Every structure is written in C-alpha cells, then in structure tokens.
Amino acid sequence: MNTVAIKELLYKMADDQLILGHRNSEWTGFGPLLEEDIAFSSMAQDKVGQSYALYQLLHQLGEQEPDTVAFTRNANQFHNCQLVELPNGEYDFSLIRHFLFDTAEAARFELLTRSSYEPLALLARKIRGELRYHTLHANTWIKQLGTANEESIARLQRALGEAFPYALGIFEHSPFEAELIQNGVFAGEAALQDIWYDRVRTVLAETALQLPDRDHVNPAFGGRMGKHTEHLQPLVEEMSAVFRIDPTAEW
Amino acid sequence: MVTTFSIEQIRTWLEEVKDPEIPVLSLVDLGVITHIEGSERSVRVEMTPTFVGCPAMEYMRAEVIACLQKHGVEEPTVEINFREPWSSDKISDKGKAALKKYGLAPPPDNRLFTDLEVLERAVCPRCESDNTELKTPFGPTLCRAIYYCHSCREAFEQFKPV
User: Do the Cβ atoms of B137 and A49 come within 8 Å?
Assistant: First the structure.
C-alpha cells in the first residue's frame, strides 16, 4: 500500500485534532459557565491526546517523533483545515465550529473503523466511542440555544454563516483520493461530506437555524495543502514556545 | 535456579498497582492490562488506555514496571497499544463494586449502550435513587461525568460508559 497516501491522510487528521485541541484549551478559565469551561478543556485534552496517537502512527511509518512534528513546523507545513485555526471568537462561534467539525470527525472515525490499514482501524474503534461525548455535547447545546430566544438564535445563525464555508473546507480532496478509496483505506471526502451534511441537517431541523445550501457556498479550501489564514502562525508560535526555548524540557 | 513467571502470579502482583486517580481500583480490575506473557527471567505486559488522551498512562506504565521489579522480574517490558481497545465493560465486577463504595457510580453495561440517552439514568451511588440528572458529560478526569441526585440533593460522578 502507498504509505505516502496514508501519511497524507494521517497528517491532516492529526493536525486538525492538535490545532482544534489547542483552540479548545483557550477556553480554560474563560468558559461562560463552569461546566462549559470543563467541557472545552476536556475536549481539548481528548483531541490533543488523539493527535498524539495519530502522530505515533506517522512515527511508525518513518516520520519524526510526535513532539518534533507538533512543535517544530511552521504554519505552511500544517495540513489542518482552516476551520480549526480560526480564533475562538465568542462562545457562539466556538460552539458552531465544535458542532460542524466534530460531526464530521465522528463520522470520519466511524468510516475508518473499517479501514484496510489495520493500525488506523484499531485506533478509530477506540476514538469513535470518545467522540460520541463530543457530539452529544455539541448537539445538546445547539438544540438548546438554537431554540432559546431571539438573541441566541440570531447569534448562532450569524456564526453558522461565517463558519460554513470553512466547514466545507474540511472535505478538500486529497491528491490520493482515488487510491485511498480503491485500497479500502478510507471511503473518501465526498462520501464523508454526504454523511456530515445529513447529520448536521437532522440536528438543525430541531432548531430555528437555517442550514446554508452547500451547493451555493464557496468552500474555504487550501488548508490541506499548507495554505492557511493569518491566524495559524501565531497559534503555532504560542503552542511551541516552551519547546522552542528548551526542546529537552519536561513538563 | 531458573524461574518461569506464571501468568496468574503476575496478575496477582499487578493487583497491587492502582489507578492513580481512583486509588481503590487496581489496573487489573480497571481492565487496562490486556495481555501478560511470562517466561524465564522476563515478563511482557500489554496495556491499553481508558481514553486515548489519558495523561496517567506513562505513570501507570512506570508503576507496572516498578511493581514487577519489586517481585524480582529483571526485565519487565510494557507495551501500550490499541489491539484490544478498552471499554467500560472491561471493568470487573469487583472493580465496579469498589467504584461504588468509593462514591463513583459504576458505568452501565456498554452492550446495552446504543444511545447516549442511557446517560440520563445514572443511579446515585449514595442513596440508590435513579431520580438523577446529567449535569455535564465532562468531569474532573476524562473518564467521569457529573450528575445531580434529586433525592439526596448531592452532586455525584459516574465512570462514563465508553
């Protein structure tokens, strides 16, 4: 099997988890209520841990150690989608992003439980159960605030409009798309997007929120190829500050 | 004299190693020890994390090695993998009883767990009431959720079904 294709898949997944994990951790101490502070902090810990496990798989395929990979690259060497690097904004934007991204991520890992690449299938079977708590959390709050009052609905609708083109960017096609599908490694971004759209629509149908029509929105592509917004480089610098000062430090 | 370590013997020793966050629960009862191999002089143990991001994994690995060395194993090795992924069903009955005694509601049977709605029906470990409410699926550690019991009017935690 073509390891270049598998590495490309692993890198974009690992980078998504690491960068969104870092953004989630920025809510620590700032959540609108204590339970939300703990929820975003816990999801941060899950996501960073999951990225570590994915970087370990890359390491087994000959890439550098997880810490080296995570802390020594510049923004243009990251393969995450642009959605995860955007600043947290207000709670409404963070919640919408969490809902759109984690719905896709949960579906991605479900598909990967059947991957012909055994190490990834094993990891996916484990992570799938953990992500159910993330989607439960997102769906609960979207349903609650998406029906609560005029302000909460207007705020979420605006955030949904802002985040939606970036959410479509999750599914940017890889140069190895056909190969990954043919070899049974992954069902592919197009198949994933269909599952995602369906699930997002089902949850939003229980709210007053309007889902944008995906055929009439230009996706924010580029992240998978290392093209990022101005927001990623400062994040990477902050995330790797300790490592860059002393790569041998233990903390 | 050449000794061969038996699996039962090693398992008994590992009962001494407790979950660092829940000191009444051994790693054996927690279900994270997935494979044990004993031979002359050496012992090989496989472990798997409860949650992929569990920060206690390295600590537990070191504790397992220290425990085996204490019992005279010269070359213990521990491998962490996902070959046999952990689920909350792997907690033994003895482990579940220990959790409850410790004040943590044990996880419900994961085989019945097709929908997260099961989370709404935790039984209070103090008063046995099921008149309880999930406050948040995230708690002080990745493996715990926070509930409120309307009968005894106390918050409590549950070990999450996964």
Answer: no
Give the closest-approach CA distance of A221 to chain B in angstroms.
Answer: 29
| Dihedral pair phi/psi, residue B148, rounded to 5° | -125, 135
The HSE-up count of residue A77 (CA atoms within 13 Å, CB side) is 8
Which residues of B have a CB under 8 Å from any CB of A?
48, 51-55, 81-83, 85-87, 116, 119, 135-140, 142, 146, 160, 162
Q: Which domain holds residue A71?
A: 3-245
pTM of the model: 0.92
Alpha-carbon distances of A154 from A145, A211, A214, B154, rounded to whole Å: 10, 13, 20, 36
Query: Which ipTM score applies to this complex?
Result: 0.83
pLDDT tens digits, one per residue of B98-150:
999 999 999 887 665 555 555 667 899 999 999 999 888 898 888 888 999 99
Supply the pLDDT for residue B3. 66
Chain A residues close to B82, C-beta within 8 Å: 53, 119, 122-123, 125-126
CATH of B7-80, one of 3.40.50.300, 3.20.20.80, 3.40.50.10240, 3.30.300.130: 3.30.300.130
What is the H or E stretch that residue B80 is in? strand B75-80
| Nearest residue of A to residue B139, measured between CA atoms | A38
d(CA A140, CA A94): 14
User: Does the beta carbon of A39 lie under 8 angstroms from any beta carbon of chain B?
Assistant: yes
The pLDDT score that the predictor gives to residue B108 is 84
Chain A: residue whose CA lies nearest to B142: A42
